[in-house]
Amino acid sequence: MNLDPNILAQLKEPERVLMVSIPVKMDNGAVKVFTGFRAQYNTARGPAIGRLERFVADWARENNIHGKLPEIKRKSQKVAVVGSCPAGLTCAADLAKLGYDITIFEALHKPGGVLVYGIPEFRLPKSIVKYEINEIEKIGVKVITNFVIGAILSVDKLAQDFDAIFLANGAGPPVL
């Protein structure tokens, strides 16, 4: 493999910033190359892939680029997801893509669990979490907040009303 001599010189330094070109396939089939993103590179660890992924995701969100889902054949089964932590959101989104009728029950006033209440803004901006939850709602997932299972609705009643239940209780508050 032949690398550009300029890149080889940069790789000899322990911490460098490299220019990156990212090809993105557009909806019309054309490939557009975005150049100029600078990724931190550490020769001991390799390129900062997370930063590249963040760049692509941020760019797609800012430019209103959405992946196209195939036509979803709706199923009659209803699934309750208790909690909107990362596991609950992932379960809800994946099952909705398979056609199930999904309802998330969240005890707190905002969905997202640790994504909203546990990760600081500088690590994960709340606007990104809100955007991703809105995307999940667009595929048919219903989100009900301020709803404590066990206090407002019993688990037995929930089991009567839904064909399946996924418990995504999250981490909960720390115990001291």
In brief:
With 176 residues, the protein is α/β, with parallel strands linked by helices. It folds into 2 domains: 5-62, no CATH class; 78-167, FAD/NAD(P)-binding domain (3-Layer(bba) Sandwich).
Strand content: 15-25%
Order of helices and strands: HEEEHEHEHHEHE
Q: What is the tally of helical segments? A: 6
CATH topology description of the largest domain: FAD/NAD(P)-binding domain
Q: Architecture of the largest domain, CATH level 2?
A: 3-Layer(bba) Sandwich
Described by strand count, sense and barrel closure, the largest sheet is: 4 strands, parallel
Ranges where pLDDT stays below 50 over 5 or more residues in a row are 10-18
| Class based on secondary structure composition and strand pairing | alpha/beta
Radius of gyration: 21 Å
Features:
176 residues, alpha/beta, FAD/NAD(P)-binding domain, 2 domains, 4-stranded parallel beta sheet, 3-stranded antiparallel beta sheet, flat
Can you give a write-up of this model?
The protein has 176 residues and is of the alpha/beta class. It has two domains: 5-62, no CATH class; 78-167, FAD/NAD(P)-binding domain. 32% of the residues lie in helices and 24% in strands. It has six helices and seven strands, in the order αβββαβαβααβαβ. The strands form two sheets. It has a four-stranded parallel beta sheet, with helices on both faces. The radius of gyration is 21 Å and the shape is flat. The termini are far apart. The model is unreliable at 10-18 (pLDDT under 50).
